[in-house]
Amino acid sequence: YERARAANAEEAEALAALRGLETARHLGLQRILLLSDCQRIVRAFRERSEDLSWGALTLAPDMRAAADFFLDFRFEERKKERERLREKMHSFAYRANALLTFAVTILAVMCSIASLSDNLNAPSPTAQVQVMNINWFQKQPNGNDEVSMSLDISANLESMFTWNTKQLQDHLFFLNENTPKNSDLFYPPLFPRLPPDSPGSSSDGGMIFPPYGANWSNNHLRRSCSVTDICMGSDPLGSGLGWKPCCTLQECIVFVFLAAEYETPQNSLNQVSLWDGIIPSKEHAKFQIRTTNKYRFIDQGSNLRGKDFNMTLHWHVMPKTGKMSADKIVMTGYSFPQVYR
Amino acid sequence: MGFIGDSIQSVKSIQIRQLLTQIVSLGMIVTSALIIWKALMCVTGSESPVVVVLSGSMEPGFKRGDILFLHMSKDPIRAGEIVVFNIDGREIPIVHRVIKVHERNDTGEVDVLTKGDNNFGDDRLLYAQGQLWLQRHHIMGRAVGFLPYVGWVTIIMTEKPIIKVSFLQIFFL
């Protein structure tokens, strides 16, 4: 075949293969693996097709004859150069894609961990509101009562931003009833005893440890989230999951507002926001301010004279990522004057 | 010649197959996104379960470009909740906080006044002419969770359609 000429690329490939086989035979090699990137030659060799219409295929019987000399002959396909390059590029794209997906998944997991509630931290804010003065109390021309008052609001919301280690100790001591009070914080028993407790309102103390199945109460503990709270949802936002966000692992912004709540013959509930503020960080969580009501206190109708009302301090926690939550403190015992001033 | 036709045929068939594969996978991505969207609509009970914050009226809590997850339930609307509402005549929903609630004794209907945290005055300027209160049917949902910054993709693609077109071109190449 040294002097044979090829009419096209496939013939050249077949001739090169034949030359290679001859050389191998001369060298006395027994086991041959021949790789070609020409699909059609490989297929023609395998299928033993008798179709000799195509130039290179006339060489196929010669190749088979040459192949018979060897003990073990395999003729296989090898990917073309550009296809291999394309695959390499693709694999780079696939790897980048996999890496990006992994990174995003990790980010999502971190966000959800940061936004899960730390059930051992029960925020216990305190607040006090005093009506310093009723500036004026009039009936508008349209028939609605309006009042302007000066308020003194003081509150301490620091417990929402920090772990309360004393509380932690109290919680874990309850689990570990047989051990003394100053036992190691992180030594809970494996099988805590649990008296069954009726799914109470959220004023019932409850705890999650382990997070599934157990639901017991201890009236000495302050209020914290219980399994029934989570499963049956007793949160004001009505979304069914009573998780409170964890402001110890991430930054939260707390929106605080003071609302007056009262009832009238026409309306079963009236809520009027009198003042609001934003607590951007733990440093501002304890405050006291004196202010007149930021928003006009106007009734629907003329029902305020002598009316009793509650002052509720609401706070809405907005974490960097995750679910928002809200709660409030109700302070009763306020009332309007009997006559206009 | 016979084999020229054959080789051209084989080359074309490979490319057509790949093109079809790409079209089908693009179609699958689009339809699965649609399925997820519709499922979210069912689960959260609101028309648009995810909204992007477009203005800075709720800073520092929600900045422009944040995504809010909404949920609508039959629970009564109370002061302090962050609600998303539509005003008649405005197409873009607004995300603000409820500051006043008056709930009727007999019908249970509610009058609601909202205000953006970062705004100075309440939303009466935004309401329709002569409207002083929002009712329940204006409200599309309550905000229950949010993700920061993710909504910028939507804002950029909406405000600069060039980027959307070039993004699609890159994808097809």
How would you sum up this structure in a few lines?
Chain B: Its main location: endoplasmic reticulum. Chain A has 6 helices and 11 strands.
Give an overview of the whole structure:
The complex is a heterodimer of chains A (341) and B (173). Chain A is rod-shaped and about 125 Å long. Chain A has 6 helices and 11 strands. Chain A is α+β, with helices and mostly antiparallel strands. In chain A, the strands form 3 sheets. In chain A, strands 3, 4, 7 and 8 form a 4-stranded antiparallel beta sheet that branches. In chain A, strands 6-5-9-11 form a 4-stranded antiparallel beta sheet, with no helix packed on it. Chain A has helices at residues 9-27, 39-47, 60-67, 81-115, 165-175, 227-232; strands spanning 31-36, 72-77, 126-139, 145-156, 252-262, 267-279, 286-292, 297-298, 308-319, 322-323, 325-335. In chain A, helix 1 (9-27) runs parallel beside helix 3. Chain A starts with 8 loop residues before the first helix and ends in a 6-residue tail after the last strand. Chain A folds into 2 domains: 1-115, no CATH class; 124-166 and 247-340, Immunoglobulin-like (Sandwich). Chain B has 173 residues and is of the alpha+beta class. Chain B folds into 2 domains: 1-44; 50-153, Umud Fragment, subunit A. Helix content of chain B is 36%, strand content 22%. Chain B has 3 helices and 6 strands. In chain B, strands 1-2-6-3-4-5 form a 6-stranded antiparallel beta sheet. In chain B, strand 3 (82-85) and strand 4 form a beta hairpin. Chain B starts with a helix and ends with a helix. The model of chain B has no long low-confidence stretch (mean pLDDT 84). Chain A binds chain B through residues 53-55, 111, 236-239, 253, 255, 257, 259, 265-273, 276, 278, 280, 295, 300, 314, 316, 318, 320-324, 326, 328, and chain B through 2-3, 60-62, 71, 73, 75-76, 78-82, 97, 99-105, 108, 111, 115, 117, 122, 142-148.
